[in-house]
Amino acid sequence: MGRLIIVSNRTPAPGERTQPAGGLTVGLYDAVQTRETVWVGWSGHQHADAADRPVQREQVGNVNYVTFDLTQKQYDRFYLNFSNGVLWPLCHYRTNLIRYTREDCDVYYEANRVFADRLISLLEPDDTIWIHDYHLFPLGQMLRDRGVTGRIGFFLHIPFPPWSVARLLPKLDMLLTGLAACDLIGVQTPEDESNLRGCFEAYGLKAAVKAVPIGIDPVSFRQQAIESAVSDEVVKIVDTLEGTRLIIGVDRLDYSKGLPERMKGFEALLKNYPEHRGQVTFLQVTPVSRGGVESYRLLKEELDGLVGTINGAYGTPDWVPIRYTTWPIGRDILAGLYRMADVGFVTPLRDGMNLVAKEFIAAQDEEDPGVLVLSRFAGAAPEMPEALLINPLDAEGMADALHIGLTMDVKARHAAWSAMYEEVSRNTAGSWSKQFLDSLEEIRPCP
Predict the structure, then answer these.
(1) Which Pfam family would be a valid example here (predicted)?
(2) Cβ-based neighbours of 274, under 8 Å, separated by 6 or more
């Protein structure tokens, strides 16, 4: 078996290289334990002479991490403007937020050529290359153009829109042609698979597309939740709730997560079900991301205003309805808070998968599990039909679901939780990476 070459926009941060935390890092943990691996990506640094700077290397276990710098222009136009200002809103169906310019598109391809040039000198003939996510759509074709003949796989971690939406992107045909050079393209859900296939067919392109939903490591996360729930940090937070029930939401700041809609759903709960006033606290953890993008700054301003308005309207001197923080909280503490929560509140307007939903289920106390209120537009929803599925545009519907979750008896809660935990345990991070790589090898046998 040859080496596994992982390519992503960023490699795991140094702390995550020994203790995986992020979705991609956890997802690939099993794969990199069983074979020699090189993980290649941008360093996170910008320098005017980036092209002349050597790559940086760090060996951790079986993995050789190789990173390189970009210029400030490449960071601005490839990462901020095109990847996150064009492709991200397009793939999340938010076409009103797209800000396309030809120069940003050109630099997106320029940056992908940098990835290809940095990568090509590292490759050996029997390597298996696995490219990840929307930052690197054209990379497969660029590697083929440089003479790479071995297996190339691609996995898209975010949704992919139907032809009627995707066709709004100028030069979509060029982007899809580059992607079609990969031997296998993995996506999160059957809907994404159907959408991407339809776009390829619209241009007469042939490509192998397969839905391979990503999972988590439920055993280790569950153990982390059990230990964390009795830690000083979590006990201190729970004590401040003063006996109120806990609803928890955890998302990075992003307009795809349905955060303003979630606040309005909680507000509708307090309005329509006044018996919960003073009896429940909603904790929303929302670390700021992509602060340099205008739409994200505007979203934060909107959330700040909504939280203040709701707390002002319903709060009392001894009860704050919403506790809202944009400071990141450690994954171990979040695991303990999930376990202590009565309701997990997950409301994306569109999501590739949403591993928070799966982590919430993995963390629960089997004897007294909490209830998952989940958007039907999350990629996880088809795998978790036992959740209380909601439409985040329907505030009253969310309020009804929250009320049901807060008043559901333990027998019903356990039945729903056990079914979802069985699914979370079946489709894990390890099975995801194995299924994809096995499928890739079936399509393109070892040289």
Answers:
(1) Glyco_transf_20
(2) none
In the annotation, is 217 catalytic?
no
Mean pLDDT in residue range 4-11: 95
Positive or negative, the CA dihedral 72, 74, 77, 79 is: negative
Q: Which of 92, 132, 135, 157 is catalytic?
A: 157
Cβ atoms of 350 and 380 closer than 8 Å: no
The span from the CA of 229 to the CA of 238, in Å, is 9
pLDDT 10s digits, 345-380? 999 999 999 999 999 999 999 999 999 999 999 999
Q: Which of 217, 351, 400, 403 is catalytic?
A: 351
Residue 242 contacts residue 207 (beta carbons within 8 Å):
no
Average pLDDT over residues 83-104: 96
Give the integer Cα–Cα distance in Å for 66 and 59: 9
What predicted TM-score, i.e. pTM, was given to this entire model?
A: 0.94
Is the distance from CB of 122 to CB of 7 less than 8 angstroms? no
Q: Is 157 a catalytic residue?
A: yes
Residues 411-443: tens digit of each pLDDT: 999 999 999 999 999 999 999 999 999 999 998
